[in-house]
Specification:
By secondary structure, this protein is mainly alpha-helical. It is 63% helix and 9% strand. A two-stranded antiparallel ribbon has the order 1-2. Strand 1 and strand 2 form a beta hairpin. Helix 1 packs parallel to helix 3 and helix 4 packs across helix 5.
Length: 185
């Protein structure tokens, strides 16, 4: 009977590893879909999220190792889910503005100067909207914003690792948009 339990535990361990690989693969599938919705299949990431969130280890098979593996997988999914949600929102915003999604994708280097200025203008407008909602006045001109963001981008890109990406956030204490490094996955 012990051998059967060991085999069943190994099966659960393999399933957790397979789900972990699915989370990694889903990131690429989601990015591909958002950049080319006509030719790429929907990634069906919500089903994967639900599957992992509902996953339970049978009590008879539960070990500290399996519990830790499941906990790590669910935390990984938690962070990916937030990143996927942000990607989706960015893609929708880009679509509504008539731009192609992908300014944070590997194709970002192909953006024209006009596209970059348009993106920066959009971010400056978002910053202005946030400031209006907070009741704060205009803190900087569009040109000052653009120069600050470009300088920050150059700084971060020099120090960015392969497992990091540069993301735009709004700092409520400084009352302005800024770029930060974020770990992928």
């Amino acid at each position: 009977m012990v051998i059967l339990t060991d085999q069943e535990q190994k099966t659960v361990e393999n399933e957790l590893r397979r789900l972990d690989r699915e989370v990694d693969a889903m990131d690429g599938k989601l990015r591909a879909y958002l950049s080319d919705r006509q030719n790429k299949p929907h990634p069906r990431h919500h089903e994967l999220i639900e599957k992992i969130q509902r996953y339970r280890i049978p009590a008879a098979l539960s070990t500290k190792q399996l519990k830790t593996m499941l906990d790590n997988l669910q935390w990984k999914l938690f962070y990916h889910k937030k990143a996927w949600q942000q990607l989706w929102e960015n893609a929708e915003a880009a679509y509504r503005q008539g731009r192609a999604f992908g300014s944070t994708s590997p194709n970002a280097a192909k953006e024209t100067e006009s596209d970059k200025s348009s993106s920066l203008r959009s971010y400056w407008q978002l910053q202005q909207k946030k400031l209006d909602e907070m009741g704060a006045g205009c803190q900087e001109s569009e040109a000052e914003f653009e120069n600050r963001i470009k300088q920050r981008y150059r700084e971060l890109s020099r120090n960015k690792g392969d497992d990091q990406e540069i993301v735009m956030t709004f700092d409520k204490t400084k009352k302005r948009c800024t770029l930060e490094l974020k770990w992928k996955g």
